Amino acid sequence: MRKKIVAGNWKMNPNYDEAIDLLNFLKDNIPTDHSGVDIIICPPFIYLIEAKKILNRQDIYVGAQNVSSFTNGAYTGEISAAMLKSININYTIIGHSERRQYFGEKEENFSKKIKLCLQEHITPIYCVGETLEQRNNGEQLKVVEKQISEALYNLSDDEIAKIIIAYEPVWAIGTGVNATPDQAQQMHVFIRELIAKKYNQTISQGIIILYGGSVKASNAKELFSMPDIDGGLIGGASLKGKEFTSIINIAMNI
Ligand code: PGA
């Protein structure tokens, strides 16, 4: 039985004081008894240490939103996997569509980032998903297959089993229009089939696949109830303490 995960991706928000308020709210309001649901908060890099200090409860993980594809050295502005590990960060998002869209990142970078994270025992949350144009052209499966094969297929059985995948259709991110539970379920099954074909059935059934794209308290139940959706990667709604804790409560009660 796969566990559920509710992860918050704060993106480039908010400023320092608001971040501290939100972290304190989460510390005080995330229910302590959420067995079966892992919680991961991914604030901007500069708040990571503070987040670790404030969320000093064992049951809330802190993750990064990105990581360098280089090991260390003269790479101005970059943060390495080893640096994240040195402050006890256990997760990082990799391959978010905003990294693809605005920073020109490609599967080749993601594959390097994933390897470096695994070496440091950091769990990558690898994001995939098609644009609206690609979906309208009926290319969504082909697009996601390419994103998965080029970034993940060089991993060993042991390594792939440690990855979390997030299906985030680009047209659903920040738009208020979520994929329907059926659309998301279909893609999650397709991703599981890819993993089963390349690796094996046991790995495919064990791998955690999150859905992301306009998840809110009002749609979380129907999405998280689908058999192959193991929780959510939440953007906008993770910045609102009450809304985010409601989503956690929903995941706990499925
Ligand atoms: P959203 O973002 O929940 O604001 O749509 C999700 C994400 O980009 O991870």
Short account of what is shown:
This protein is of the alpha/beta class.
List the helices and strands and how they pair.
Blueprint: E1 4-9, H1 16-29, E2 37-42, H2 48-54, E3 60-64, H3 81-86, E4 91-94, H4 97-103, H5 107-119, E5 123-128, H6 132-136, H7 140-152, H8 157-160, E6 164-167, H9 181-198, H10 201-206, E7 208-212, H11 217-224, E8 231-234, H12 241-252
Parallel strand pairs: 1-2, 1-8, 2-3, 3-4, 4-5, 5-6, 6-7, 7-8
Helix pairs in contact: 5-7, 7-9, 11-12
The structure holds 2-phosphoglycolic acid.
The site of 2-phosphoglycolic acid has 13 residues, from strand 8.
Question: If you had to describe this structure to a student in words, what would you say it looks like?
Answer:
The chain has 254 residues and is α/β, with parallel strands linked by helices. It has one domain: TIM Barrel. Helix content is 44%, strand content 16%. An 8-stranded parallel β-barrel has the order 1-2-3-4-5-6-7-8, surrounded by 6 helices. The structure holds 2-phosphoglycolic acid. 2-phosphoglycolic acid binds next to strand 8.
